[in-house]
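Thread: Newbie trying to understand structure tokens

Hi all, I'm a second-year student working on a class project, and my supervisor (Dr. K.) asked me to get a predicted structure for one chain before our next meeting. I've only ever worked with sequences, so writing a 3D structure as a token string is new to me. If someone could post the tokens and maybe explain what I'm looking at, I'd be very grateful. Here's the chain:
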Amino acid sequence: QVQLVESGGGLVQAGGSLRLSCAASGSIFSINAMGWYRQAPGKQRELVARITSGGRMNYADSVKGRFTISRDNAKNTVYLQMNSLKPEDTAVYYCNAVAGWAPAGDWGPGTQVTVSS
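---
Reply by user tm_fold:
Sure, no problem. This is what the structure looks like when written as tokens:
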């Protein structure tokens, strides 16, 4: 089982940007889809972006046009570039393998993103 560790979170003002990284302990080349999820306090964890091995990307409506997901199979890393951040983007962000639209692996520790108004 591939272990995932997220990094890159922090405190940023509204309108700012952050780039999250998800480092895998093993190869992600054979994993068809990887995704970024987030969980805000008191809310369910939600999928915000997904990328297939072929590079097809999907986004939640709430982040479309502001977030960009990418993957570097050679580095076993998945990224999430987040621009024009809003206070409602505040959450713990996690990456995971995705089967269809559901998480398919073990969760990492996540990385906290806090956007101040």
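A couple of things are worth pointing out once you decode it. The CA atoms of residues 29 and 40 lie 30 Å apart. The chain has a mean pLDDT of 94. Feel free to ask follow-ups in this thread.
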